[in-house]
Amino acid sequence: MTQLKSSFKVDTKLQAFYTEGKIQIDKNGDFMFCGCGQKVQMIDIKSSNLVASFSKEEEIVTNFILSPDNEYLIVASQNLLLRQWHWRERKLVRSWRTSHRTPIVSMAMDKTSTLLATGSTDLTIKVWDIVQEHCTHDLTGHKGVICAMEFNPDKSRLQLVSASDDNLIRIWDLMTSTCVSEISAHYSTVTSLIFTPDGNTMYSTGRDSVVITWNMVELKVSKTLPVFERLESIIPVNPDILDYDIFKLQDHSTYYITAGNKGNLSIYQHDNGKCVYSKKLVTVDGGKSEDEQVITQALYHPILKQFIVVTYDHNIILADTQDFTIQKQFAGYMDEVLDLQFIGKDDSHIIVITNSEKIKVYERSSWKCQILTGHTDIVLNISVHKQSALFASSAKDSTIRVWKFDEDIGNITCVAIASGHIQAVGAVCLAKTKADFVISGSEDNTLKKWELPALDESRKDVVTLKAVATDIAHEKDINFIDISPNDKFIATCSLDKTAKIWRESDLSLLGVMRGHRRGVWCIQFSPVDQCVLTGSADSTIKIWSLQDFSCVKTFEGHSASVLRTMFISNGMQILSCGADGVLKLWTIKTNECIKSYDDHNGKIWALTTNTAENTVVTGAADSTVIFWKDVTEEEREETLKIQEDLILKEQQLSNLIQKKKYLKALSLAITLEQPYKVLSIIKAILKENEGIRELEITLSKLQMYQVDAILRFAVTWNTNSKHCQEAQFIIGVIFNSFSPNQLIEFPNIQSTLEGLLSYTDRHFKRMNRLLQQSMFVDYTWTCMGRIDDNPSQSIEAMEEGESDFVISRKGSHIEANHNNSDSESDGSDSENELDDMSRVKKDTVKTPHKPDSDSDSSSEESDMEVTDLNKKSKFQKEVKNTVKENSPIVHVTRNMLKKQW
């Protein structure tokens, strides 16, 4: 039986780690540092994992540099601060504000890792001693933004070379803080300055398509070589690291490698300026201008023994030194993720398409990335046939391509191309059983079926597919296509608000499903039932019957367009995602949304699962791919474990109560967060001999957080008149046991007091009313007892009774005036008041005197009066006992609350 899923959690994230600027690689070749918005990201080169981020404030990073001694990372931000990090320990050593007026865009360090040069858009250069922590030089003279700087590696010559947008190169003598040479050799922006190890020769490149060699002894240009390519980087190389046979190198010659807007790595011989070898590493898409740089940075790392090439679309390539073969690729920035699918044995790889003409394929074990080129415009959709390791892609270039994945070596090659649509192809789907045909849908409103022949592994040429059927399927763009599990039916959906079912053999229309109020973004056949699932821009999900094409269920919950839906759990559940950035899990039987996840910060365009359905992957407009792990079973086991533990603790609690070990029982009940168990324990303590004293002792042994918890519980008990007595006992004991300063330290004291005040005041008023009623009975009975035959004495008795008992008009307390005392009693002396009143009652209440004329009648009346007196006395005792028990607590609580709170 299929187990329904109830929960997912984020397992892995693929997100942007490089968006701008130059990259840096540490001396040992273990880590790569990349600028990404407000952070500098550190990437493990072997595992491709993000291991650290360096950021301190919400400020954009404008530049950074790694010290040559491999100890420090210095980061410049837009707020003109420099921060020095000990990057191995992830520790900020110090930060200081520069005297630049605008952001730093160029940085360089000398070989001793002592001097740091910063170049700004304010046209100045400043040199800092990071050991002595002060500015040593302020160099001015450039008339353009500083674009490149480099220290001479020869320590005996304190030289700094700088270049700016005014196309001038200046050489500074730091001993005298003067510019010793200013040469205009380039006619466009200078992009790189590189010294040879001895410091006697320097190479400069620019976007004027020349390489200039400088004699740093005589401080003049020694050679200019045109390369007919706008260059971004130059790498002087030792010929020994290159393959002499492949590159046809000569002994005793000097070589350097250039990289620029053509996407090539080219080897030039310095002596004669001849290009001895060139290889294209980066393919330019159709919309890329030749004036734009394809390769933005290139460098060589001696430990890795690889060339590192950075491309315009934020990809980083590691190429070997033998023939520039690509060894590894990193996708630094994916932009919007439009679709993704698993492929390979055990779903070992995942295909990701973004708003780019290139397809990225990641190996899940190492996150090694393979970038596929072929389409000339943005790829929009992919479809995978896992059994044959084929997948199809459709793009805005109006073509469909079929790719073959070699599971043994991990390479992917294009094996077939289909052309025939006249507009962008937004939907494609491979057959589910044999992968012998492909269905495509386009913005030209047509649906096409392409026959896919058997593709032999030995076949090297790319097959051109032919359309065997075409139909005008919709009135607007076709958004999505799905094929039934038996390959007999085709489902399409469109922006025309409809979904349609077609017969596969001849593309004949079988039925139209109408009901969505806006365009339909996605459609899928159920794996087990005769129904289809659709998601629409009207924020709803619908299930349609294939018998009569009617809507049988509607799911509402998204706040924006539903962009992708799919069946899981053998068709019993649904996953959906939309433009609201939310992933939702639904149960079909109950029409209930079980969980919602909002970890994305943009539209979720892509959704898929692996074969086992224990991993869900989403891709969104926030340039993030999230892998979600099914944790249903783990949560069930954890819940069962918690329940078992709870049962054991509850049994332990019952045993402690039975054994009258109240302190341990109270601590355990507080730990379990069971307020009414705590209440029952307190009631049990109060029933003991000297219960109040026992309660005080028990509370004094509790920890501070436990006392705070009991106070929180007392707020709840205090809302119910059945439990208010125990609550007031607790409040009185705690307030008398702890000083106000101690009470302030309780984390929840403010909310506790707010909850106590209103109900405590209500209980206090109720006690006052009971007390007033009791006094009124005493007053009435006293007046009646003083009536005798003398009318004048009766009136005097009435007046005397009135003077003895005066009920306050304010209703806050009862004032009793006695002949033997002029003092006014307060609420804390209520028990004494009651005793005084009882004595007055006993002294004044007598059996009224009656005439002797009718002795029988008098006897009967006397008996009735005695009976009434007994009833009245019993009632008075009950009222007085209640007041006596509660009044002190109320007064204590009131007085405590009247203090600083």
From TrEMBL:
<feature type="repeat" description="WD">
    <location>
        <begin position="471"/>
        <end position="502"/>
    </location>
</feature>
<feature type="domain" description="U3 small nucleolar RNA-associated protein 13 C-terminal">
    <location>
        <begin position="650"/>
        <end position="784"/>
    </location>
</feature>
<feature type="repeat" description="WD">
    <location>
        <begin position="418"/>
        <end position="460"/>
    </location>
</feature>
<dbReference type="InterPro" id="IPR013934">
    <property type="entry name" value="Utp13_C"/>
</dbReference>
<feature type="repeat" description="WD">
    <location>
        <begin position="139"/>
        <end position="182"/>
    </location>
</feature>
<keyword id="KW-0677">Repeat</keyword>
<feature type="compositionally biased region" description="Acidic residues">
    <location>
        <begin position="823"/>
        <end position="835"/>
    </location>
</feature>
<feature type="compositionally biased region" description="Basic and acidic residues">
    <location>
        <begin position="868"/>
        <end position="883"/>
    </location>
</feature>
<feature type="repeat" description="WD">
    <location>
        <begin position="372"/>
        <end position="406"/>
    </location>
</feature>
<dbReference type="GO" id="GO:0000480">
    <property type="term" value="P:endonucleolytic cleavage in 5'-ETS of tricistronic rRNA transcript (SSU-rRNA, 5.8S rRNA, LSU-rRNA)"/>
</dbReference>
<dbReference type="Pfam" id="PF08625">
    <property type="entry name" value="Utp13"/>
</dbReference>
<dbReference type="GO" id="GO:0032040">
    <property type="term" value="C:small-subunit processome"/>
</dbReference>
<dbReference type="InterPro" id="IPR020472">
    <property type="entry name" value="WD40_PAC1"/>
</dbReference>
<dbReference type="GO" id="GO:0034511">
    <property type="term" value="F:U3 snoRNA binding"/>
</dbReference>
<feature type="repeat" description="WD">
    <location>
        <begin position="555"/>
        <end position="596"/>
    </location>
</feature>
<dbReference type="Pfam" id="PF00400">
    <property type="entry name" value="WD40"/>
</dbReference>
<feature type="repeat" description="WD">
    <location>
        <begin position="597"/>
        <end position="629"/>
    </location>
</feature>
<feature type="region of interest" description="Disordered">
    <location>
        <begin position="815"/>
        <end position="887"/>
    </location>
</feature>
<feature type="repeat" description="WD">
    <location>
        <begin position="97"/>
        <end position="130"/>
    </location>
</feature>
<dbReference type="InterPro" id="IPR001680">
    <property type="entry name" value="WD40_rpt"/>
</dbReference>
<dbReference type="InterPro" id="IPR019775">
    <property type="entry name" value="WD40_repeat_CS"/>
</dbReference>
<feature type="compositionally biased region" description="Basic and acidic residues">
    <location>
        <begin position="836"/>
        <end position="853"/>
    </location>
</feature>
<feature type="repeat" description="WD">
    <location>
        <begin position="513"/>
        <end position="554"/>
    </location>
</feature>
<feature type="compositionally biased region" description="Acidic residues">
    <location>
        <begin position="854"/>
        <end position="866"/>
    </location>
</feature>
<keyword id="KW-0853">WD repeat</keyword>
<dbReference type="GO" id="GO:0000472">
    <property type="term" value="P:endonucleolytic cleavage to generate mature 5'-end of SSU-rRNA from (SSU-rRNA, 5.8S rRNA, LSU-rRNA)"/>
</dbReference>
<keyword id="KW-0539">Nucleus</keyword>
<dbReference type="Pfam" id="PF23869">
    <property type="entry name" value="Beta-prop_WDR75_1st"/>
</dbReference>
<feature type="repeat" description="WD">
    <location>
        <begin position="183"/>
        <end position="224"/>
    </location>
</feature>
<dbReference type="GO" id="GO:0030686">
    <property type="term" value="C:90S preribosome"/>
</dbReference>
<protein>
    <recommendedName>
        <fullName>U3 small nucleolar RNA-associated protein 13 C-terminal domain-containing protein</fullName>
    </recommendedName>
</protein>
<dbReference type="InterPro" id="IPR036322">
    <property type="entry name" value="WD40_repeat_dom_sf"/>
</dbReference>
<dbReference type="InterPro" id="IPR015943">
    <property type="entry name" value="WD40/YVTN_repeat-like_dom_sf"/>
</dbReference>
